[in-house]
Amino acid sequence: MVDRVSAKDTDWDGVRLHVVTGKGGTGKTTVAAALALALAAGGRKVLLVEVEGRQGIAQLFDCPPLPYEERRVAVAPDGGDVYALAIDTEEALIEYLEMFYNLKRAGKAMTRLGVVDFVTAIAPGLRDVILTGKTSEAVRRRDSSGAFVYDAVVMDAPPTGRITKFLNVNEEVSGLAKVGPIRNHADTVMRVVRSPETAVHFVTLLEEMPVQETMDGVAELRAAGLPVGGVIINMEHPPMLDDDALAAAAEGALDPDAVVRGLKAAGLEHGAESIAAVLTAEAAEHARRTALQRREKRRLETLDRPRYVLPLLPDGMDLAGLYDLAQALREQGAA
C-alpha cells in the first residue's frame, strides 16, 4: 500500500490558498489550524490567517494574542513552520491607504475619529476587499530569489452563510468603484481567488443543519464560479456497537437482563439494575445518533467532492489533539 504522506499524493497539488469555512460551532478554526500544520509538515512554510478578530488561533496554539504581524506559532511534524496573522481591519485599512493613496497619516487620524468603522459599515464590500486582499498578497509574495515566501496560505474564513459574498469581492465593490485603485485591487484579489491555486473547504458536523448549510454553500460557490475544495467532517462519533446491537437499541429491544448479567460479571453487583436502565437508554440515543450520522454522510456523498473525517477527541481539544488532527488530514490526502 502506498504511503500517501511520504509520496506527497495529496488531493490539492498546486493549491496555495486554502480557504476554510463552516457553520458556527463546527470547529472551523480548529480544522484550519490542523490543516496549516498538515500542509507545513516536511519542511514547508505555511501562513494561517484569521479574519474575524476572535484570536482563536492564539488560543489553539496556546500563545499570547497575536499582533498585526506574521509570527511563528508552531513547528510542524518532520520540520516546517506555521506562521499566523490575525488581520486587524483598521491596521489593514491604514496599510491599504498608504499603499494606494500615500495616506498613512490620514489613516491614523481616521482611526482616532472612528471614521474607519463608519467607512466599513457603509461600504462592507470594502472591508472584505481589505481582508481578502491582505491574504492574497501573502499568497503572491516572493522573496529576493523569486521563490514564494509561503508554500501555502490557510484562511480561517467567515461562516458558510457569508463565504460567497466574502470571496466574491468584485461583485461587492461594483457599486463602490468602477475604476481606480479599489477596482484594480479587487480584480487582483479575484485573479487569486478564482485561480486553480485556490480551494474553499467546508467544515461540517454530521448533523442536519450543518450538512444543509454545507450543501447550500457549495451550490452558491459553484453558481458564483468560485473554486470548491473538499468537505471535512469534524468530530465524528464512532459507533460503539455492532450493527445488530445498534438495530436492537434503536428499536428498544435490548435485553436488560443480559445487560445486568454483563455488569455483574464485570464485578458491578451493587445497583446493576439501575445502571442497566441508564445504559440501555444511552444505547438507544447512541443508535439514533449513529443512524443520523450515516444518513447525513450519504447526503454529503452527493456533492462529489473529496471528503475527510476527523474524530471526536475524547479528551477535548488541546495542542496535542491539534497535531493528531493534522496527522489524520495528511493520512487522508488533504495535505
Number of helices: 14
Q: Would you count the extended β strands for me? A: 8
Runs in which pLDDT lies below 50 for 5 or more consecutive residues are: 1-8
Element order, helices and strands?
EHEHEEHHHHEHHHEHEHHHEH
Class computed from helices, strands and strand pairing = alpha/beta
Please give the order of strands in the largest beta sheet.
3-4-2-5-1-6-7-8
Computed Rg: 24 Å
Terminal Cα span? 18 Å
What CATH architecture of the largest domain would you give? 3-Layer(aba) Sandwich
Helix content: 40-55%
- The dominant shape is elongated
Give the C-level CATH assignment of the largest domain. Alpha Beta
Our count of domains comes out at: 2
Q: Biggest sheet, open or closed, and with what strands and sense?
A: 8 strands, mixed
Beta fraction:
5-15%
What is the typical, i.e. mean, pLDDT? 85
CATH superfamily annotation of the largest domain: P-loop containing nucleotide triphosphate hydrolases
Pfam family, one: ArsA_ATPase
Domain ArsA/GET3 Anion-transporting ATPase-like: 17-188
GO molecular function, one term: ATP binding
Protein name: ATPase
